[in-house]
Design the sequence.
């Protein structure tokens, strides 16, 4: 089990202060729809690494379903339904991109709008369809059109 680097824990205090003052952007929809707003972010930007096949190399976090997202990860649970700001899954997206746990691990951070979607989705209880409709597919397995 890996521990969160102390810097994330210290940073999170400052982060919480900074983020605590923010309200959602006026563009953030009233109700977040998993399939429309969250699925594309997770599938396009996270599933490449956080899937059942590759999770062992990536903090053991498997984001393919709600059940796996709520129970896997070295710091499970990384989603605290009802509390976006405190959720590790949100914090690693919102932290400075120089931080070792910054996600996704590329210079290409999510837009503020997407961060708002993720935070509000978790605040709204992280609804996620059960079974096959909610099962995410890693990009490596996407079918290419003939
Ligand atoms: C290129 C591979 C890759 C991608 C893409 C990626 N991650 Fe990660 N992720 C990792 C690795 C590697 C770690 C472990 C980092 C460490 O411990 O230093 C990690 C750790 C995490 C953790 C901490 C998990 C824990 O329990 O410790 C979370 C949460 C997370 N990632 C969320 C995401 C999200 C959300 C996305 C998409 C926006 C994403 N990651 C995209 C590789 C990736």
Sequence:
């Amino acid at each position: 089990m890996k521990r969160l680097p102390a810097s994330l824990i210290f940073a999170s205090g400052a982060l919480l202060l900074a983020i605590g003052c923010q309200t959602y952007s006026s563009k953030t929809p009233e109700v977040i729809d998993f399939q429309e707003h969250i699925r594309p972010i997770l599938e396009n930007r996270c599933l490449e690494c956080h899937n059942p096949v590759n999770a062992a190399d990536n903090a053991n976090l498997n984001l393919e379903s709600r059940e796996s997202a709520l129970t896997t990860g070295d710091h499970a649970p990384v989603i605290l339904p009802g509390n976006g700001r405190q959720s590790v899954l949100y914090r690693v997206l919102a932290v400075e991109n120089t931080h070792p746990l910054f996600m996704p691990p590329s210079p290409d951070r999510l837009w503020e709008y997407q961060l708002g979607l993720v935070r509000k989705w978790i605040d709204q209880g992280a609804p996620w369809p059960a079974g096959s409709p909610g099962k995410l597919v890693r990009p490596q397995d996407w079918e290419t059109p003939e």
About this structure: Residues 6-20 form the longest helix (15 residues). The mean pLDDT is 89. Residues 25 and 116 are 7 Å apart (CA to CA).
